[in-house]
Write a structure and sequence with these properties.
- The chain is 10% helix and 42% strand.
- The chain is mainly beta and 308 residues long.
- The chain folds into two domains: 93 residues, Immunoglobulins (Immunoglobulin-like); 177 residues, Beta Barrel (Lipocalin).
- A hairpin with a 4-residue loop joins β18 and β19.
- It is globular, with a radius of gyration of 26 Å.
Length: 308
């Protein structure tokens, strides 16, 4: 009984101690204004108005009453906003040639208020890969590759982050996908050096190993829903280019800092549920180790292939 009296007295004291006249406010919730997107194109001169060919652009974002920023570097591939707490970042644009991109910035203020601004940026990207990369991938003409099921980690996944360069979350064991998805191992990927460029031929006698719907990377004929698995896909041929890697992973990770960029949506390498830029981590005459962002964009996927 004594304990109950003490507890009741404490609660009553707390209640009486609260003043009904106290008022809390967040202040004015004015959305940010005067957003300025400053895009410094690296190497820009009167003779090279679109930059030095590196594709690098240094962004500095400012706004009145802004607490944080997010930025989308290219509206053409869908809005995907990256956090930009300091308002500063460097972006490497890797599409070859001179291209114009629509940059979108969202500035956030108090109470979640926000304002949006857009700006066009025109930048040139010129790139020639090391000759050994071309020779190892294509054999100087044509070379066919398959996923190497005989080694551990031939498929793996980790976070999509410049601070991560390996399959931290999961890596396949030897032959792991034979029982569920043997199409993963029977698909072949033929890289060709052709006049004026490069092409990739994908042959999938047992279907494409992929997720479904919007996660299928645009591959034609894949169902709108279903589990990850093998799905009928008629194969395809498309062009590709070598581009500088768009990530900031250092070459010491290792990485060649060179990527294979597939055109269109009819081809893929290894796993269908990936975007079209494949960073070449390691490439020899008979071994290839790739890293690509998943269509679930928080994931980085890793592939090990061998030459036939």
């Amino acid at each position: 009984m004594l304990n109950r009296i003490i507890i009741f007295t404490a609660i009553l004291s707390m209640a009486l101690g609260c003043s009904p006249t106290e008022d809390y406010t967040l202040g004015d919730l004015n959305p940010p204004s005067n957003i300025v997107i400053n895009a410094e194109i690296v190497g820009k001169t009167p003779a090279t108005p679109d930059g030095d060919g590196s594709g690098d652009v240094k962004f500095t974002i400012t706004a009145t009453d802004a607490l944080n920023y997010r930025i989308d570097y290219d509206a053409a591939d869908g809005i995907s906003l990256d956090n930009l707490p300091t308002g500063k970042a460097t972006r490497k644009y890797t599409k070859l040639g001179t291209n114009t991109y629509v940059v979108t910035v969202v500035a956030y203020g108090k109470g979640g208020s926000s304002s949006t601004a857009t700006q066009e940026v025109t930048v040139q990207s010129s790139f020639s890969p090391d000759a050994s990369i071309i020779d190892n991938l294509t054999g100087g003409g044509s070379k066919t590759w398959v996923v190497d099921q005989s080694v551990a980690g031939h498929l793996g996944v980790g976070p999509w982050s410049d601070g991560s360069s390996g399959p931290e979350w999961w890596a396949a064991s030897i032959d792991e996908k034979v029982a569920c998805c043997n199409c993963f191992y029977t698909a072949t990927f033929k890289f060709n050096k052709i006049p004026g460029g490069y092409s990739l031929e994908v042959n999938t006698p047992d279907g494409a190993f992929t997720k479904t719907g919007s996660l299928a990377g645009g591959l034609p004929g894949i169902p709108d829903s279903g589990d990850e698995g093998c799905y009928a896909y008629g194969g395809g041929t498309g062009s590709f280019n070598f581009v500088p890697s768009s990530t900031a992973i250092p070459a010491s990770t290792p990485s060649t800092k060179t990527s294979i960029l597939l055109s269109g949506a009819s081809t893929f390498i290894g796993y269908g549920a990936l975007q079209k830029e494949f960073e070449i981590m390691v490439l020899t005459s008979n071994y290839m180790y790739l890293r690509a962002q998943g269509t679930e964009t928080g994931n980085a996927w890793y592939l090990k292939l061998k030459a036939l």
